[in-house]
Amino acid sequence: MKENLKAKLVLIDGTEFNGYSFGYSGNCNGEVVFNTGMVGYPETLTDPSYSGQILVCTFPLIGNYGIPAADYENGMLNNFESEHIQIRGLVVSNYSYEYSHHSAVQSLSNWLIEAKVPAITGIDTRMLTRRLRESGTMPGKIVINEKEEIDFDDPNEHDLVGEVSVNEPVEYTAGKKKIVLIDCGTKNNIIRAFLGRDITVIRMPYNHDFTNINCDGFLISNGPGNPKMNKVTIENTRKVMEKNKPILGICLGSQILALAAGADTYKLKYGHRGLNQPCNETGTKRSYITSQNHGYAVKASTLLQDWREWFVNDNDGTNEGLIHISKPFFAAQFHPEASPGPDDSEFIFDMFVRALG
To answer: What pLDDT, in 10s, does the model give residues 112-126?
Structure first.
């Protein structure tokens, strides 16, 4: 890695930001999005919901505490949310070449190089974020090797969920109660949350028929991209709703549940990505600080008569959850499992467990 290797970020609208490479010395493309979290980059970079995206960190100092070891427990990496880095590229204002933490085993730069993920530092991320807020997230590319041509790409036009879901069913054995986790790009901490509650988890590929599996409930996970691309998952969700067994949707899972129930979804201008998103619980005076990562949302006005908004984003009023008035179906647009971020809303998992009977 050469600290003075020049690099640039180019947006599809023609805007360019010049800086220096501190990751893999290759080019990449994707949807340019920003995250407002101050910490948690090992978990964030391995979150499958970021598949296809070039991530901009608004916090100015990144890399100062390095990367922890890849330790396994229950078949999952302890310190990460999936098996590898999911983003296509990383953009920061100031990369810390020196790192210090008792659990660190390598630098962020080395980790990115090993995973062949390009990264750029030394640009004005405040200006870039303002651009994305005003114009909306958009395709972009990191160019380090000028001789290597690369086109713009909109990952939302691809089957991103198919790229991050497991290929075969996986069972994590715990207690007698059993749930089916429809893996649209699940974070490891969602699985940990249920194993810690003595619930056995059957992790199913997103496009497999999970409608006839003997279980106590269904969980539709988070994941990347446009929820409407997941037609098979939506149809299977519609079928299991007829069984009246508990269903919990998280993030993309919330959108899939809404689509299966006859509602509509739409793309947000620049999405919600960070650890500090306030959400109000409707009908109460409670507000929760939540961890979020999504670019689409449920259009609340299209919810059918038996459904209600459960949470609303305090910043822009968009939907952050839905709940059925009589059946055990509910969903959160944010991440109750955090990792990274606050766990204020982890009570939602307890609600789901109680609904299992």
So the answer is: 999 999 999 999 999
Residue type, 286: R
State residue 257 phi and psi, 5-degree precision. Answer: -60, -40
Report the C-alpha gap between 140 and 154 in whole angstroms: 9
141, amino acid identity:
K
Decide if 251 is catalytic. yes
Phi–psi pair at 104, nearest 5 degrees:
-75, 135
Cα 290 to Cα 104, 277, 282, distances in angstroms: 26, 5, 15
CA distance linking residue 44 with residue 41, whole number of Å:
5
Q: Which of these is catalytic: 251, 272, 309, 320?
A: 251
Q: Mark whether 335 is an active-site residue.
A: yes
Token pair of 178 as six digits: 């059993």
- Report the alpha-carbon distance of residue 314 to residue 286 in Å, rounded: 11
Residues 6 or more apart from 240 whose CB is under 8 A from it?
210, 211, 218, 247
- Summarised one tens digit per residue, pLDDT across range 158-167 is 999 999 999 9
Whether the CB-CB separation of 64 and 99 falls below 8 Å is answered with yes
Tokens 């409670």, residue located: 286
Q: Which two tokens stand for residue 247?
A: 């269903």
pLDDT digits (tens, 9 = 90+) for 189-234: 999 999 999 999 999 999 999 999 999 999 999 999 999 999 999 9
Q: How far is CA 7 from CA 28, 51, 121, 137, in A?
A: 11, 22, 8, 21
